[in-house]
Amino acid sequence: MNYPWRTAILRFLRLGEGQELQNAIMDILENYPPQVAGILMNCLSTHDVPRCITALAAPDMEGRGRDWQREHNTFTADQYYFGRHMAKLAALIQYTLPGCPSLYYGDEAGLVGYADPFNRGTYPWGHEDQDLLAFFQEIGVLRKNSPVLRRGKFVPLCFGDSFCIYQRTLGEETIAIAVNRSGDYQEIPWSRPLPEDAKLLLTVGGAEGLHGLHPRSAVVVQIRE
Length: 225
Prior knowledge:
By secondary structure, the chain is of the alpha+beta class. The protein folds into two domains: 3-144, Glycosidases (TIM Barrel, Alpha-Beta Barrel), CATH 3.20.20.80; 148-224, Sandwich (Immunoglobulin-like). 36% of the residues lie in helices and 22% in strands. The chain contains eight helices and ten strands. It has helices spanning 3-15, 18-29, 34-37, 52-57, 66-71, 77-96, 130-144, 147-151; strands spanning 41-43, 100-102, 153-159, 163-170, 173-180, 186-187, 199-204, 207-208, 212-213, 217-224. A five-stranded antiparallel sheet has the order 3-4-5-10-7. The protein has a three-stranded antiparallel sheet with strand order 6-9-8, with no helix packed on it. Strands 1-2 form a two-stranded parallel ribbon. Helix 1 packs antiparallel against helix 2 and helix 6 (77-96) runs parallel beside helix 7 (130-144). The chain is globular and about 55 Å long.
């Protein structure tokens, strides 16, 4: 399991450590052959770590025992909806990086939980978060239908406190991803002007065309050379 990328993605979204995210991505891509990088199991949750929504929205469990985790394992509605939204940004990054997105059962349905055993809850059959489920279906279809997201070269463009921006390129096609994790509207600092025929493939949150992102939002853009 690709825990270094998991940690870096979550810390970027929660703490703004964008440069650390770029470093973590490039450290693996520069030290592993493409045949290995292409099958990395990119996770956001597993049975060994807190679930993604919990890691993004709940109090940090560092140094806390099971009794504390049990007392804090229930979310308020505000906590849950914030965590769910941030989990969408995390999953967007997960599904657009090299490697294979590895979805821990129940993340797509809205399960939360600190460390074992709280991250091993039963799947909520009949009570899934339909909004989150639809989002995971959407990004799954996007990746399945996009050879460039599955096999394209990774090109970092801008990583900082607020943004991570990168491209995947394959032949004459490029897919650009921009994520604004801050609480403010931001103009997207693309490395060069986008062509007129650039196509918006997916939005999380809100965007002003292809040039600006609302707070905690992201876009996926297709560019053909």
